[in-house]
Design a protein that fits this description.
alpha/beta, Beta-Lactamase
Length: about 300
């Protein structure tokens, strides 16, 4: 199943940097050496086995943008599942940014009216911390008003913290087929082993794609922090020619286990009962792995391939 994702925004807004961090294992400081995107760069990213993201990273130079809305209009905006538009929060050409965004929306309405729209207000690390919420909410209100009759979902993002993972996890979540069934299976697994919480990560990107929790947690950004920490640790392992397979973190209040799960996922299981041994939890993960692998194969066999 291929799903077309458009990544658009003015040149220098940070599109290619975020794509490289999420999908190509870059770290933030290394994105400085990336050059500007010329015209459209196509990436086919296998995600959860049967789901392939057909990502179109569209260069944001003015000449390219004008061309997208003229001679390439049908090719660019046809069969789009998701439009991700990136705004540089410190742009000095906000009026022009909004004009191009509205042109994108008009083309989407004409060619892909069912597409989901996401706006990333990016480079928020450049804004004083006490001003970030007010500036983001002001920009969010403007974008939602401009987007009508389409609905847009907005995120404040930076390549230097967990907000980037939060945004992309939410976007990819919208593309996963039968995600509700996946969450139901996680709930059954959690209740069977008396877990406090279970997180499911996509294997290559470590984006959180599904989770179950027994009760709400006070840190609403913990999933993205975990994604960021584990991915950085995984990259560190690669640099010393080691491969990351599993991890256990334990204190007097909880034990957290991260382990390879299906061929496309990692799982994190959090236990609060200190009387349950590590060996028992790891055995339960191994037994559940067989069940989830079977479900994944069944889903793959009944999902038709859509070429776009």
């Amino acid at each position: 199943m291929k799903k077309k994702v458009l990544l658009m925004g003015k040149s220098g807004s940070g599109k290619t940097s975020m794509r490289s961090i999420i999908f190509a294992n870059y770290i933030a400081r290394d994105t400085r050496r990336l050059g500007a995107t010329i015209d459209v760069e196509h990436s086919h990213i296998r995600f959860l086995g049967n789901l392939v993201l057909n990502l179109w990273d569209c260069g944001g130079q003015e000449a390219f943008m004008e061309n997208y809305f003229a001679s390439q209009r049908d090719n660019i905006f046809r069969n789009v599942e998701v439009l991700i538009y990136v705004f540089d929060v410190e742009s000095r050409e906000l009026e022009k940014d909004m004009h191009y965004y509205q042109s994108c929306l008009e083309a989407i309405l004409q060619n892909s009216p069912e597409a989901k729209v996401f706006c990333l207000v990016h480079k928020m690390d450049l804004v004083h911390e006490e001003q970030r919420d007010s500036i983001f909410h002001e920009r969010e209100d403007d974008l939602k008003r401009l987007s009508k009759p389409l609905q847009c979902t907005c995120f404040a993002t930076s390549i230097w913290d967990e907000t980037l993972y939060k945004a992309w996890s939410s976007i990819v979540y919208q593309l996963i087929p039968n995600v509700q069934q996946l969450e139901t299976n996680l709930a059954h697994f959690a209740n069977a082993i008396d877990a406090e919480e279970i997180l499911l990560f996509e294997r290559a990107t470590f984006l959180v794609i599904s989770y179950w929790q027994r009760k709400p947690h006070r840190d609403v950004h913990r999933f993205e922090k975990i994604s960021n920490i584990i991915k950085q640790f995984k990259l560190s392992c690669t640099k010393v020619a080691a491969s990351f397979q599993s991890m256990e973190v334990r204190n007097s209040h909880f034990a957290a286990f991260v382990d390879a799960f299906t061929s496309n996922t990692y799982v994190m299981v959090i236990m609060s009962d200190s009387s349950i041994t590590s060996a028992a939890t790891l055995l339960n993960i191994r037994n559940a792995r067989q069940h989830f692998e079977r479900l994944e194969k069944e889903e793959l066999s009944r999902t038709p391939m859509v070429t776009r």
